[in-house]
Structure prediction request, 138 residues.
Amino acid sequence: MSMPNFEQIQVGDTLPPLTLEPINRTTLALFAGASNDHNAIHIDIDYARKAGMPDVFAHGMLSMAYLGRLLTLWVDQRQIRDFGVRFVGITHLGHRITCTGHVVEKFEADGERRVKVELRTANQYDETRILGDAVVAL
Prediction:
């Protein structure tokens, strides 16, 4: 991994995008086990339909984890100072999620050079599912 350099990074620079395989039931079951989040809306089609949904859908935290992967493919996880998201849409079965990010600010804090990155997940229809941001020390 080539580490970004504070002097070379410019506001507007983008992180290399991360595109995942389409969301499927196996992924949801594995994430439920790994996260200990067995909410029926994510794994039980009958429950999801009773709740008015056409089928189960992905955990929001799964997509946040994908954004975390986007960040850690760019920098070492020890450089992440802040990371947060806002869930704005449902990620359904079959959605192919692409994670993107771009630098919106360069600054110094606590004796470190840092950048703020805006983050986004979108499906194959370019519909935003999650918006977020992170602060990274460079």
The chain has one domain: 13-137. The chain has a mean pLDDT of 96. DSSP finds three helices and five strands in the chain. The first strand starts at residue 18 and ends at 19.
